[in-house]
Amino acid sequence: MEPQTSPESLGPVDYDRVQHQSYAQGRALPAASIQRYMDTFAPHLPARRPLVGVDLGSGTGRFTPALAEAFGGPIHGVEPADGMRRAAEQGARHPRVSYLAGQAETIPLPDATADFVLMFLSYHHVADKPAAAREIARVLTPGGRLLLRSTFKERIPDHWWRHYFPRSGDVERAMFPTVAETCELFEGVGFRTLEVVQTEAPFHGRIEDAVARLKLRAVSTFEHLTEAELTEGFARIDADLARGAIVEKSTLADFIVFEAPR
Predict the structure, then answer these.
(1) Would you say residue 16 lies in a domain?
(2) Are the CB atoms for 124 and 227 separated by under 8 Å?
(3) pLDDT attached to residue 9
(4) CA–CA separation, 54 vs 73, rounded Å?
(5) Do 85 and 34 touch, CB atoms closer than 8 A?
(6) pLDDT at 18 over 70
(7) What is the pLDDT of residues 181-234, one digit of tens each?
(8) Domain span at residue 233?
(9) What's the rounded Cα separation, in Å, for the pair 258 and 45?
(10) I need a labelling partner for 251 at 20 to 30 A (CA). Which of 10, 202, 205, 214 fits?
(11) Do residues 148 and 255 lie in contact, with contact meaning Cβ atoms separated by under 8 Å?
């Protein structure tokens, strides 16, 4: 029998147990991809520099130093998982970046600290989303920006690996909110929705390297699949890789721009 897939059936991902060991390598992006995101975010932030920012759910610091380079800083990387934060402190240092223990519901910064907050694929891990929305409003300056990069239920990306794990789409539809639900929640605490943005996320590099990274299982969706599903999926990937039959493709990346209460 196939496992049940519902929001209630999905437990939290324990990044201190496994994910921190492989996340930086498994989710690595080339410098060009990271710069592309910085260029995409820039028009939605104030033109002045420097900007103080919060990378909320900063993980292993995949984007934190780039935010400091692009927007001046200081940038505060806030991350609840000790293992992920230690990896960031070791592998993603920058003179204008500090990594802090905290979570979206309890950000360890004073009121009106930040010009912007970035949540990059971390929102779905937040347990108390209304509390997080209030806390983000607290640390932002009046009129500051929240860039919420997330997957949304009605816009599940068609990754090149998707069809090898047939239940992954159901898992993500259970894991992620809709755009409307997200806007309603933040607007309920005084934010204003400025724009819903969809941008291309190109496929970069060699497919062999992409397969190797995927095998590190640094994708939270995989935490909700069975070992049998993962073993079968990776076996099919290996077979297609050997015969040159994997279709590389770009996907679409979504983010919402919110303005903090004034």
Answers:
(1) yes
(2) no
(3) 46
(4) 9
(5) no
(6) no
(7) 999 999 999 999 999 999 998 888 899 999 999 999 988 899 999 999 999 999
(8) 7-259
(9) 10
(10) 10
(11) yes
Comparing C-alpha atoms, which of 221, 216, 258, 40 is closest to residue 124?
Answer: 221
Please give, one letter per residue, the 3-state secondary structure of the chain: CCCCCCHHHCCCCCHHHHHHHHHHHHCCCCHHHHHHHHHHHHHHCCCCCCEEEEEECCCCCCCHHHHHHHHEEEEEEEECCHHHHHHHHHHCCCCCEEEEECECCECCCCCCCEEEEEEECCHHHCCCHHHHHHHHHHHEEEEEEEEEEECCCCCCCCCCCHHHCCCHHHHHHHHCCCHHHHHHHHHCCCCEEEEEEEEEECCCCCHHHHHHHHCCCCCHHHHHCCHHHHHHHHHHHHHHHHCCCCCCCCEEEEEEEEECCC
Structure-block tokens of residue 9: 């059936």
CB 57 within 8 A of CB 125: yes
Q: Is residue 2 part of a domain?
A: no
Q: Evaluate whether residue 143 is within a structural domain.
A: yes
Q: Which of 26-30, 50-54, 125-129, 151-155 has the lowest mean pLDDT?
A: 26-30
CATH code (residue 47):
3.40.50.150
Name the amino acid, one letter, at 138: R
Contact criterion met (CB below 8 Å) for 110 and 52: no
1: in domain: no
- Contact (CB, 8 A) for 122 and 136: no
Identity of the amino acid at 135: E
Q: Locate 91 and state its tokens.
A: 């592998």
Token pair, residue 8, equals: 């209630």
Q: How far is residue 129's CA from residue 150's CA, in Å, rounded to a whole number?
A: 14
| Domain count along the chain | 1
Q: Give the least confident one: 25-29, 97-101, 143-147, 213-217.
A: 25-29
